[in-house]
Each structure stands twice: as structure tokens, then as C-alpha cells.
Amino acid sequence: MAKREEWAELATSVLPATFFGRPAEQVAPELVGCWLIRRLQTGEQLRGLIVETEAYAQQEPACHGSRRRSPQNETLFGEPGRFYVYLTYGIHHCVNLVTGCLDEASGVLLRAVQIPDEPARVAAGPGLLARRFGIDRRHDGLPARPDSGLWLAPRLLPPGMDGKLTQTTRVGISQAQELPWRWYLRSSPCVSRRARGDRLVRPGAGL
DNA sequence: CTCACGATTGGA
DNA sequence: CCAATCGTGAGC
Fold first, then answer.
1. A169 CB neighbours strand B below 7 A
2. Is the distance from CB of A50 to CB of A61 less than 8 angstroms?
3. Residue A74 class from Cβ within 10 Å (0-12 exposed, 13-18 middle, 19+ buried)?
4. Residue A1's pLDDT is what?
């Protein structure tokens, strides 16, 4: 098989918009193991293996689209396959992928990625991930495609990596805390800070 | 118009 | 455990 450095190179195709036209809780676990790719000004690419995600849907109160449709959350109601980016705590940006159908608010929060040859913690959390990839509100509403400079590639795990998923309740929310809509790669050292302490729902399901 | 509150993080 | 920091939305 390929050498370590070549694994990121192998993730060369693009996840199509149709991939996202399904319920968020179905898309979220499938996004684990996929790659987040950013084209840099130099023409180089920054790639991160998605190791942790969460699903949000209009019918549950933790979702930004559960209340009123507004300029702030408009993207969440729009076409699936676009990025929904918002500012939280006045400091950090969070990156989501819009899922489901048009006029229905749902999405998947990217909580952590693992970047080959970089320290484990540089993107181990939603805010850290956005900072490392240089993503902010200007990216809100952009389609996840190469011409946006930001897109996703299909699942491709490094050789030898344990692909088992752990399913838990979501992190940092005050409502709908019992919903088991968070997934992460059990073997990754790059999951977010609050990974521990959340109610474990289903350890080690196959990927 | 005022004010409380985050889908977080880094430092005491 | 707590402060940082600011846009949004609920409430007066």
C-alpha cells in the first residue's frame, strides 16, 4: 500500500451535493473518515481527516434552525451541500454542512479533523478546526466544491487505523441533550476537548 | 434600545 | 473553574 504521506493524496475525488440530501443524523456518521480540503493561496492543499461530527435538525431545539428563519440561519434552510458557518462566543467560528431538503433546516457540525504530519490538537475542536483552515463567515453559503476553494473528499482511512465509531450525546448544548447525535473515530487522538464525559450510547460500531 | 446568552477555548 | 468577546434575538 501507499506510504504515509501519500494517503492524503489518494483522497482525490469530490463528495457530490447529492451526498448531503439526506437526514443529518444519517450523513453525520458517514462524514467521519472523509476529508476536508482547503485550497491555499499558494495552490497547495490543506487536508484534514474528519474524526468527529454532530447532527442538528430543525425539529429539535438545539438546532439554529429550530426557531425563526433569519439572515443568520438562512443558509441552514437552503440547498444541501453548502457550508453553514457561524460565529460563537464572539470568538470562534463553527463549520457545518447543510443536509436534508430545501426549506428544511438541518446540518452536520464538523467538530474535529486530524491533519497528517501536524500536532494532534491543531484542529481538535470546532473553533480550532475553523481557525486552522482559515474559515469564517465569508464562507457561509458557499457550495462544498473545489471552485469554492473548500470541499470534501470521500472516506479513505489511513492504513492500520481502527475505523470503529463511537456514538454519544452532543457537546456544549443546553437543550435536547439526550439526543445521541455525535460520532467520532474511537481510535483518533484528535477528538475535541469535551470528548470525555458525554453519555456513551454505542461504542465501536463498524465504519 | 438594552441585555443575556451561546453547537468554545486557553489559561489560572 | 472562569474570562474573553460580539452578533443575534427576546423582552421592555
1. no
2. no
3. middle
4. 45
Rounded to an integer, the average pLDDT of A5-30 is 85
What are the structural domains, with CATH classification, of chain A? 6-202 (3.10.300.10)
Q: Which residue is nearest to nucleotide C9 (CA to C1')?
A: A68
pTM: 0.94
Pair A86, A79: CB distance under 8 Å: no
> Measured from the CB, is A70 under 7 Å from any atom of strand C?
yes
Task: Please give the protein residue whose CA is closest to the C1' of the nucleotide B9.
Answer: A127
Nucleic strand C under 7 Å from the C-beta of A197: no
